[in-house]
Specification:
Rossmann fold; two-stranded antiparallel ribbon; 5-stranded parallel beta sheet; 4 helices; alpha/beta
């Protein structure tokens, strides 16, 4: 929420996609984006769609291409690619996965979003780690 607020992004009536449905990350973020923000609450009044790692890729792309805000917390490397992102969208990568390079044996942490590709399209993006 602070990332969105401090970036000056309005969420009222915007389309948001949360990819991930965990009780600790995905669902709380979806509820925060979706909840009624009338009064002094922290809610953000976005129209929110919840997807997950088993949402068919073509269906996920349909949802993300219309999203003003994408929050990915599925734990699937490169789940969100540039061709799936609406130009100017805010993309927040919460996913984190440790992968091992097969040639070097060195492990690294990666997010759900193809950062290099998506950063060419998105208006705002967060890196992982």
């Amino acid at each position: 929420q602070e990332l969105i607020k401090r970036s000056g992004i309005s969420t009222f009536g915007k389309n948001a996609v949360v990819c991930g449905r965990s009780k600790n990350v995905g669902m709380p973020i979806a509820m925060l984006l979706h909840a009624d923000g009338a009064g002094e609450t922290a809610a953000m009044d976005a129209t929110t769609t919840i997807c997950h790692r088993h949402t068919p890729p073509e269906q996920l792309a349909i949802f993300t291409r219309t999203a003003d805000i994408i929050v990915s917390a599925a734990g699937v490397p490169n789940l969100i690619r540039a061709d799936m992102v609406k130009p100017g969208a805010c993309v927040i990568d919460v996913g984190i996965t440790r992968i091992i390079d097969k040639t070097t044996g060195i492990s690294q942490l990666v997010g759900d979003v193809d950062f290099e590709g998506v950063s060419e399209v998105a208006g705002h993006i967060t890196p992982v780690p």
